[in-house]
Amino acid sequence: MTPLCPLPPPLPGFAPPLRACDAWLAVTPDADRLTFSDAAADLLGLPHDAAADALPGSLPESLRDALRQADGDFILTVPAYGEERVLSVRVADDPDARLGPGTRLVVLHDDTDTIRLQRALADSEGRLQAILGAAMDA
Asked: Which strand (E) or helix (H) includes residue 53?
């Protein structure tokens, strides 16, 4: 069986390795020029045909500003899919220098659903402990 999203060889500084279906951006250091994957276009609501050399205004302002200042990985909340989404953002030097020297590769991971599940699990565990505590007292 062929996986839907095969893993290529790992990139230095990235774990897990960058996959073909990951949401990624390649940006210049000042975040004025970028190119991106189809998955990033879907996540950020960008037009797929603009992926060749998009204008900086196509990125959410909070992400663009964070990328200009970023010197490492960070977490950011951006509007996507009609709601606020929590993104883990990994930043590293682009080994292919897609946009010239100093290009950075940015991998976006949407952690919103994971965070919701963790909170729901914590709430459920809290309720279970309360029930067990009440049962022991009875």
From this structure: none
- Is the peptide bond prior to 16 cis by the omega test (within 30 degrees of 0)? yes
- Three state DSSP letters for 6-50: CCCCCCCCCCCCCCCCCEEEEECCCCCCEEECHHHHHHHCCCHHH
Instruction: Return the half-sphere exposure (C-beta side, CA atoms, 13 A cut-off) of residue 34.
Output: 30
pLDDT tens digits for 48-97? 765 555 555 667 777 888 888 877 788 888 887 778 888 888 888 877 77
The tens digit of pLDDT for each residue in 11-36 reads 555 544 566 677 888 888 877 777 78
- C-beta separation of 112 from 49 below 8 A: no
